[in-house]
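Okay, any thoughts on this one?
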Amino acid sequence: MKSIIAIIFLACVTLAFASKIGPPKGRIVNGVEAKVGQAPYIVSISDDDGESYYHSCGGIIIDKEWILTAGHCLIESGKVRVFIYAGVTDNSNRTGGQERATDYAIIHPKYPNDGSSAPYDIALLHLEKPLEFNELVKPIALPYPAEFFSGKGKLYGWGRTDLNQPSPNILQTVESDILEYEECKL
């Protein structure tokens, strides 16, 4: 199941984030609030100074020192040094979570750097200090390269639930069909 979530996240990450730049692009429509600990591999990414918080994108823990996210998250913010928050589902109360700064990022070399949701919209963030794994902070199980999934999976994000409302503070989740890239980009 974790592998299915990773595939959905990578394929449709551009549909589930809130950005400071331009109109809202992503939504978790008909979602429900995620329970604490339900998705311990999801992190909130902030492109601020760490003192005042503004959620800009989501990411997935793949290792104690590495976060997987979308390339457009870094291109649109124009920053490589961002902050991640792990172990929290409520961005208005991050008590008990782990905050980490990043020291560098790797954006896929074939990503066009134009902020689009094009193929290769993927990036890795390296953390200055490793995460401490516990019940609320865990890496996702990545799929094998040749694995293919169909059926349903879960999406997670802090994306808008309504175009006329601000993004929610609570992590949202919704079950969705797993789509191939050609379907997802429509």
